[in-house]
Fold this sequence. Notes:
This protein has helices at 3-28, 61-70, 86-107, 114-135. By secondary structure, the protein is mainly alpha-helical. It is extended.
Amino acid sequence: MTPQSDEDEVWRQIVASFNDTAERDSADQPWPDSENVPAEPTRRVVKPPDEDDPPLDDDPVDEADDEEDEGHFEPPPPPPLPKLDLTTKLAWVALFGGPAYLLVAAMASWHMEGWALFTAVAAFIGGFVALVVRMGDGPPNDSGWDDGAVL
C-alpha cells in the first residue's frame, strides 16, 4: 500500500463516521426539559388616553428641534490659514501646473515641443523639491526649550 492510498482510506473513514457520531451523540444526551421554553402568545397593551393628557400636536418635530438646540455644541470657527510667501506659492503652482499642462496638452492632442515637455517636468520636480526643502525637520520656532516629553 502506498502512503497516498493510506491517507485516502483515513479520509474515507472520517467522512463515513461523521454523521454516525453526530446521531450517536444526540441519542445519548437528550435535550433537557429545563431548556424547553413554552411559547407564549404576544400581547399588546394599549392605554386609553386620559382627560388630563394634553392634545397631540400635528407637528412634534418642532418640539424635538427646540430640545436638541438647547445642549448642542457648536465649535468655534477654525483659525485662518497661514499666509504663504511668494516662494511657496510659486512652488505649489509649479508642482501642480506642470502636470496640469501635460494632462491638458495630452487630452487636447496638442503637439508638444521638446522644450515645453522639459519645462513642465522640470517645474513639477522643482516645485516638489522646493516644498520639501522648505518644510524643515525641526520643531517650530515658538515651541521653547521643552519638547513636551514626560518621563
